[in-house]
Amino acid sequence: MLTLASVGVSRRSILKIVDKRRGVLNDYKPISGKRRQITGNRRMVFIRLRFLLACLLACVSLSAAQAETPVRMAYVEFPPYSFTGPGGAAEGLSIDLARALLEEAELSFIPAASPDEMITMLRDGRADISTLLGLTEDRLARADATDPLGAFGSALFTKAERAGDEVAAFSGDRIGVVRGSIAVQIAQGIPFAKLVEYETPDDQILGLLVGDVDAVVGATDSFAARLRLMELDRAVQPVEPPLEEFPYAFYVSPDRPELLSAMNTRIRDTLTPSELSTLNEIWFGSPSVDPNGELIAYGVLGLVLLLGMVMSISLSLRKKAARLEEVSQKAQATNLLVEAMNAVHSAVVVYDKDLRAIHWNDGFSSAFPKLVPLIERGASLQELVIQSYETGVVSGVWQTDETRHFADDLARKLRRGQSITRMIRGRNGRTFEATELPLGNGYFASLRVDVTGLLDQAALIEAQKKELESANEKLQIFATIAAHDLKAPLVQQSSILQVIREDIAEADQDFPDDVQDYFGMLETLSDRMRHLIQGLLDHARADEELSESELVDVNERMPSIVEMVGLPDNFRIEIQPDLPSLRVAPATFDAVMRNLISNAIKHHDRKMGVIKIRGKRIGDQTVFEVEDDGPGIPQEHLSSIFDPFKRLSANVEGSGLGLSFIKKTVNQWGGGIYVESRTDRGSIFVFSVPVDTARDFVGLDQCPMPSAALH
To answer: For residues 579 and 373, what is the distance between their CA atoms, to the nearest angstrom?
Structure first.
C-alpha cells in the first residue's frame, strides 16, 4: 500500500488537501456539524437526538429549589471541551455534560480567562461550577470536585507505519511541539529528542506528513479530533501508551454542597458509559470509515507530484533539515539551561520576539508567586519589571515614571543584543543576581539566581578576616614588646657575667672546677636566650609593608652578608656572578640569606664544607638557591621543617625560628620556598619571587632557563 511517507508528498500539495478536508477550522464547531457541511452525513444528527432523548427520560437529580435557582457555570476557551460558538453561546463537551448532570437546572455561563480564575470564581461566589478540569492538589485544596468523568492526556502521534513503535524508539528523533504549550515540557521527557516548534496543531500535522519531523506531541483527544476532522486519523495515529494522563472532573463551589451531591448521584447511578461515549463521539468524532481508499488516493496524488518535483523537493528538504537541526540544537541548549536553573532553584522566564512571556520554570513560581498571574496572561518584560517594583516584590524607591523608563531602557538594550546583570533585593530579604539576555533565534530570557547565602557567607568571611587581622596585629605587637622587654635584662645579665669574670681575673683567684663550669653554663644559656630573642624580633619584622621595599643589588650586598655570618676557616662559599636583583626590603633580604647560610653551617657534620649560591630569572619568577654538602634532611622532616620552633637536632644551638622566619618573609614578598634533600648528601633551599616584585639590573632579555639549569 502506498503511504504519504513512501511517495514524499510536498507541503504545498498537502496544504491543498487539508484545506479541502478540514472545512472552517478557525471557528471550531462540533465535529458532527463539520461532517454535515462536508459530506452531508446525517448520522450525527440522530446520535445527538438519541442522546437528548436519553437525558429527558433520566431521573430527576435536583430538588425543586435547585431547579428554580440558575446554576452559574464558568468556562474557558478550550475547544472542544468548552468554547464560545459562532452565535455567542457556550458550547463543547463540558457544556453538554453539565446539562446532562443538571437536567432540571437552568444554566448560565460566565467566561473566564484561565482555569485558575475559574477556581477563584468558585471560591468568592461568582460561579457555582467549572468546566472539566484536571484534578490537582492545589485545586482540590481550594474547591470541591465531582467524581472523575474521564482523563486529559498527552500522546506521541506519528505516521501509521510507526504507530506500533514504543516511545523509547523515538529517542533522538525530531519531535514537533506547539510553541509555548505544555507539550514542550512533556516532549523533553523523550531521551535526546530534538524539538521543532510550530505555531498551531495544524502546522504540526503538516510538518509530520511532509517529513519535517518524525512525531508530534499533542493533547490525546483534541489532537485526534482534528485528525478525524481532516480524515487523516488513519494516516497519523497515537503511540501507546500515552505520555501523560491524569483524571478530570467538574469543580463545585464550597458553598453549594447540595449541588455536588446531586451531580455525584447522577454520575454514579444514572450516567451510563453509553451516554459518555455518545458525547465523546459527538465532540471528538469517530474513525474514518474508508481508510484504504483514502490512503490510495493520497498515494496516487503524491506519486504524480513526486514525478515532477522530486529534485526541487529533495533540495528544499535538505535545506530545511539543516535549518531545523540548527533550531533544534538551540532549543535543546535552552531546555538544558532551564533544567540546570531548576536544579539550583533559580528563576527563569523565556520571552518571544515581542518580549512577551511564553515560558517560566518552577523556580520562578516559587520565588515570585505574585507575578505568576501576569505571566499566565502573557505579560511583557516591561510589565513584569514595573509590577515587580510597584507591588513590592522587589525593593526600590523609584517613582512610577522612573520604573517605566528603566523597563523600556532594559527592553531596548536586549533588542540590541546586550546582556544586563544587576543585583535586586526582595522584600522578604532574599537577594538575587538578575540577568536579562538574548537567547538567539528571536528569544530572550530573564534569570534570577538567589545569592542570599553567598552574600551572607561573604559578610561572615569579611568579619572573620577583620577579627583575624586584629588578632595577628595584637600577636605581633606582643611578640615585639616581649622580645624587647626580654632583651634588656639579658644584656644586663651578660654584662654582669663579664664583669664578674674580669674581677676574678684581677683578683688572681682560682675557683673550683665546678664553679668554673657554672659560669660557662650561664654564658651558654645567655647566648642561647640572645639567639631566641633575636629570632622572635626577626619573625615579627617579617610582616613589614611592601612600601618599605627598594631595588636590591644582590651582587653588591652578598660580601657584607657573608661577613656578618662569620664563615669558619674551613668553609668556602661559591657565589654565582651576575645574580638577579630584587625589589624588597634590603634588611629583610639580608636576614633571609644570612639565616640560610648560617643554617647550612650549623647543621654541617664535617669540619669543612662548601656552600653554593645561585640565582636566575626563569619565566615570570626570579629564583635563588642555597646548596650545601652537609648530611641532608630526613624525608620525614621535609614537610615540617619550616614550622615555628621546629629543631631537627638537640645538639645544635638555635631558636627553631630561622626557617619559619624565612618562609614567612618570602611569602610576604609573594613568593614561595621549598627544600630538596639528596639521597647521598646535601640539601638545596630554593625560594622564588614573582618578576613584578623582582627586577633584574641585567639579563632581562635573556631566554628563561629550566630550573634544572641552576643546579
So the answer is: 74
pTM: 0.36
Higher pLDDT, 113 or 504: 113
Helix (H) / strand (E) element for 222: namely helix 220-229
User: In the structure grid, which three cell numbers stand for residue 627, read together?
Assistant: 646548596
pLDDT for res 60: 39
Dump the DSSP string for 67-110.
Answer: HHSPEEEEE-SBTTTBEE-TTS-EESHHHHHHHHHSTTSPEEEE
Instruction: Show the 3-state SS of 351-367.
Output: ECCCCEEEEECHHHHHH
Length of the chain: 711
Sign of the CA dihedral with 275 first, then 276, 277, and 279 last: positive
What are the phi and psi torsion angles at 111 (to 5°)? -65, 145
pLDDT at position 541: 58
> Which residues neighbour 165 within 8 Å (Cβ) at sequence distance 6 or greater?
158, 239
- Residues in contact with 321: Cβ distance below 8 Å, sequence separation at least 6, in sequence order: 212
C-alpha distances (whole Å) from 248 to each of 130, 133, 148 are 11, 5, 6
pLDDT tier for residue 63 given thresholds of 50, 70 and 90: very low
The CB density around residue 57, as the number of other CB atoms within 10 Å, is 8
Helix (H, G, I), strand (E, B) or coil at 603: coil
- Are the CB atoms for 367 and 430 separated by under 8 Å? yes
Judge whether 442 and 354 are in contact, CB under 8 Å: no
Kindly state the average pLDDT of the residues 593-610. 89
SS (H, E, C) 282-326: HHHCCCCCCHHHHHHHHHHHHHHHHHHHHHHHHHHHHHHHHHHHH
Could you tell me whether strands 443-450 and 571-575 are parallel, antiparallel, or unpaired per DSSP bridges? unpaired
Whether 379 contacts 360, CB under 8 Å: no
pLDDT attached to residue 229? 80
Task: Give the three-class secondary structure for 621.
Answer: strand
pLDDT tens digits, residue range 162-183?
Answer: 988 888 889 889 999 988 777 8
Cβ contacts of residue 296 below 8 Å, gap of 6+? 1, 2
The values of phi and psi at residue 651, to 5°, are -85, -5
d(C-alpha 102, C-alpha 100), whole Å: 6
Which amino acid, residue 453? G
- Counting residues of the chain whose pLDDT is more than 70, the rounded percentage is 71
Say if residues 98 and 250 touch (Cβ distance below 8 Å): yes
C-alpha grid cell, residue 99: 446539562
| Grid cell for residue 551 | 631595588
Angle at 554 between CA 548 and CA 559, to 5 degrees: 115
Q: What is the pLDDT of residue 481?
A: 64
Percentage of residues in the chain with pLDDT exceeding 90? 20
pLDDT in tens, 633-666: 888 888 788 887 666 554 555 556 778 888 988 9
- Cα distances (angstroms) measured from residue 706 to each of 622, 625, 700, 709: 12, 14, 15, 6
In angstroms, the CA 321 to CA 314 distance is 10
Identify the CA nearest to 59 among candidates 257, 267, 253.
267
